[in-house]
Amino acid sequence: MKQSKYHWIRSEEPIQTELINWLKEHGFSEQLAPLLANRKITTAEQLSAYFYPNLEDLYDPFLLFDMDKAVNRLFEAIESGQKIVIYGDYDADGITSTTVMKEAIELVGGDVSYFLPNRFEHGYGPNVKVYEQLIADGAELIVTVDNGVTGHEAIEYAKTQGVDVIVTDHHELPPELPEPYALIHPKHPAGNYPFGDLAGVGVAFKVATALLEEPPVELLDLVAIGTIADLVSLTDENRNLVKHGLQMMKETDRVGLNALMKVANVDKENISAESVGFGIGPRLNAIGRIGDASPGVELMCTFDEEQAEELATFIQKKNEERQAIVATISQEALEMVAELGEQSIYLLAKEGWNEGVLGIVASQIVQKTNRPAIILSLNPESGLAKGSGRSIEQINLYDLLSEIRDELVKFGGHHMAAGMTLEQSKLPEIQAKLNTLIEQQSIDFSVGQPLNVEDHLAIEALDVRLVEAIQTLGPFGTDNPSPVFLFENGRAQMTKAIGADQKHLKFQFQTSDASIDVIAFGYGNQLVEIESASELAIVGDLSINEWNGNKKVQLMMKDYGINEKQVFDYREKLHLLPELLSLPRTFYVLFDGKHLNQFKAIPQEHLLLVGDQTDLSQYAGAAQSVVFLDCPIEEHQLQEIVSELQVERIYLLLYSKEQCYLNGMPSREAFGKLFKLVQTKQEIDVRYKLNELAQYINVEFNTIIFMINVLFELKFVTIENGVMRKVDSTNFTPLNESKVYQTRERKMQTEKFLLYSNIIELEKWLFQ
């Protein structure tokens, strides 16, 4: 049995007749009905907006609080030739927001420049010292994009200098708002905007629309990038913006964006929210994570192809640098996790960790542990620890940190993510308080994060046309995820590890009726687990694999589970013993004490040496797995032990030093040849002559020992002080009356069945 990583939730919303009729009328597959019902998209009006979003349906930008005030002030600055400075942010949303605002103001003739703060030097949001410098350099109007609602001090300073600040932001509003000249936010408490989940670039686009008196479609490529990269809800107005933005990206003449797509290996003709989210967004984020983000704006704005190529190459190198930094810190953090053992929340800190990537590392720790994680970089000079946290669905990280607000220097965030600064000396105290707060919630961490799955499709019903129909539900992202389909009661066939480092799997998921090709990224180390399952359930996204003009449906696996007991085939794989030694809650069963030396690495408290009279009932339920190290004499011993121990996972190593079945039973002629030699020689010192005897009789070394034991048991010979002598007797007992001989016969039968049967047959036999 193998519990899935995620907690699968089967969605079963009722399907209305109106939904079916609309799909028929508009030529869509009726198979989409359950998917749309589960997204609560069921009425004709909702369906039309979902499938046919129109830019004319975008909300009036002047519904945003203070928009008229902001636009009037911008036009006043433009008409009077005032110097406007855009104060942006260092992530992909901030870069695209800055570019959108800059190009919009330029289109109406404004004198505009921009400044992106450095994460390490200036921190997030308005910085007083930076504002001082900007104003000293002649800034007469400051416009923030993707930041500002927490910039009370800097905004107040600007006001004292006679410089107005227009804030455009989308982040969580603090209890007390700053008082800039204008504050544009889709969730402004005094506003009435219909959609509150715009990204920073979405808010900038609304300002641009108000300035230009129509939606600037040429900026939608940037809007799509920032919206997707910032993981905001891809519903309502954002869906409209992103869908048109992706189309604009296919047609864009923006040389910098084309250069970036090229280095990112993004297929421009088939661009999707996924390729933006995994290809473009991370690269723009990377430059701000490890340095100055300004090259991102330069890239988006340039008309020079040579400069675009240079900047795109620079950004690609920074992304590779970011990946290397993340890999190093993640490894160090995971080692800390292993040392700490299970915690309610992981608070990990180290000097020298790059602050810019700690959110990524925290996400990886959450993925591995299903626990919230806060990762901090220690600064010995300031005595502060600064970093990021990520959470799980059951724990609101922002609320949790709010409970210890007085212990923190500063923090901000939302349900699933947060950034914070705290004093290093308070780390133990904060860890203890967070643990206590979480323990009070009585959370079952054994239950994975929720994953909505669709289970209404059978594999035999899948074809390319259906998958293409499902793809019309895109662009996929937050709140409009790509449908995850569940397929059960199958086996993995033709399983193999793929990729340069063998980290991924490819297999066919086979049911009694049909099969589907599966790609499983990151599951290479679970090959044995997956191919050993007789009752495998998998979930994943459907896609189309095209090769040499042929299209075929495949599943990109996200998770799997195994509901039945499992048998893992490690026969003839003694070299993989170290892998088996790391199994949790496991007993290791040994039948033959002569093999103890072979398995001396196994801790004694987990090793069970089993004989005919061994009572294993005391161990029932104490482990989830059992490893059968060697082959028993009687095959039924395995069934009895599995039943007594009540385990779910059985590993068959079944080491056999003698290989009785493979070597067979020595013939009567071989026994006769040995006996005749003893009669001729009178005595043989078997301590030194075994190899010679084996060669003479033409049998294996272990076989000659067996033959001598048979002759000794039947009193054909005596052995004293290592010397074998013949016995003068006329009473000859048949060989098959020897217990040693009979034991070998049974072992041969047992080895034949256990070592050479198909693993599927063995599995059925073990649990019958």
UniProtKB/TrEMBL annotation:
GO biological process: DNA recombination; DNA repair
Top-level taxon in the UniProt lineage: Bacteria
Domain DHHA1: 346-439
Annotated GO MF terms: 5'-3' exonuclease activity; nucleic acid binding
UniProt entry keywords in alphabetical sequence: Exonuclease, Hydrolase, Nuclease
Gene: recJ
The Single-stranded-DNA-specific exonuclease RecJ C-terminal domain, residue ranges: 566-766
Similarity comment: family membership: Belongs to the RecJ family.
Entry keyword Lipid biosynthesis: no
Domain DDH: from-to ranges: 83-227
Signal peptide region: none
Sequence ranges assigned to domain RecJ OB in this UniProt record: 456-559
Name of the protein described by the UniProt record: Single-stranded-DNA-specific exonuclease RecJ
Species in which this protein is naturally found: Vagococcus zengguangii
Lineage: Bacteria, Bacillati, Bacillota, Bacilli, Lactobacillales
